Amino acid sequence: GNSVTQMEGPVTLSEEAFLTINCTYTATGYPSLFWYVQYPGEGLQLLLKATKADDKGSNKGFEATYRKETTSFHLEKGSVQVSDSAVYFCALSEGNDMRFGAGTRLTVKP
Amino acid sequence: SQTIHQWPATLVQPVGSPLSLECTVEGTSNPNLYWYRQAAGRGLQLLFYSVGIGQISSEVPQNLSASRPQDRQFILSSKKLLLSDSGFYLCAWSVLRGRYNEQFFGPGTRLTVL
């Protein structure tokens, strides 16, 4: 079956540091891949997505590239801000099947 | 545009009491609807999903139930709450875009069972 594995947190960085949150997936077909962000006390918001291999999703300075050869969709940001502190979820969708990773908590300190 | 509402936003209930959480979606028709639970510091656990009125699929056995009385209304219920039912409950809707579903989440309900 389909599944998503993402790096365990928590991750603590200083402001302006480089961020990578690893995400790998297992799928039987050709899924679409997503990163969602959850700010404290709120629901999940779609951050970015990629629907086919080699696509790059980007939003708010965050990027992730759909790598079919390594079954990965790592989230990166060149310079994090305190306001990026949140929980990040990697997810895949194939037809009606949607799977989420366990989430990675990011804390950015000034 | 589409919006999703959940209420109440927070709820404190005693063990053994009933529960009813409501979710409604506006601006779309025939959506897939989902209930997730997020325990403190944990990931998302899919509880129920529905592809149409009266059609409910349960992912895990538990003392919770779900109903979809109208196309854009999804209700999560319990007859008797347990301490372990405490958590953050998220409703989501999705639309099939070609080969994939894109999910949109509500603001959540924080439930504390004492």
Report what the structure shows.
The complex is a heterodimer of chains A (110) and B (114). Chain A has 110 residues and is mainly beta. Helix content of chain A is 0%, strand content 54%. Chain A has no helices and twelve strands. Chain A is globular. Chain A starts with a strand and ends with a strand. Chain B is globular. The chains are: A mainly beta (110), B mainly beta (114). Chains A and B meet through strand 5, strand 6, strand 10 and strand 11 of A and strand 9 and strand 10 of B.
Largest sheet of chain B: 7 strands, mixed
SSE series of chain A: EEEEEEEEEEEE
What is the share of helical residues of chain B? under 10%
Q: Which quaternary structure do these chains form? A: heterodimer
Q: What structural class do the secondary elements of chain B suggest?
A: mainly beta
Integer-rounded radius of gyration of chain B: 14 Å
Could you tell me the radius of gyration of chain A in angstroms? 13 Å
User: Cα distance, first to last residue of chain B?
Assistant: 38 Å
User: What percentage of the residues of chain A does DSSP assign to strands (E)?
Assistant: over 45%
Q: Kindly estimate the percentage of residues of chain B that lie in beta strands according to DSSP.
A: over 45%
H/I helix tally of chain B: 0
DSSP, total strands of chain A: 12
Give the low-pLDDT segments of chain B. Answer: none
Number of helices of chain A: 0
How far is it from the N-terminal to the C-terminal residue of chain A, by CA? 41 Å
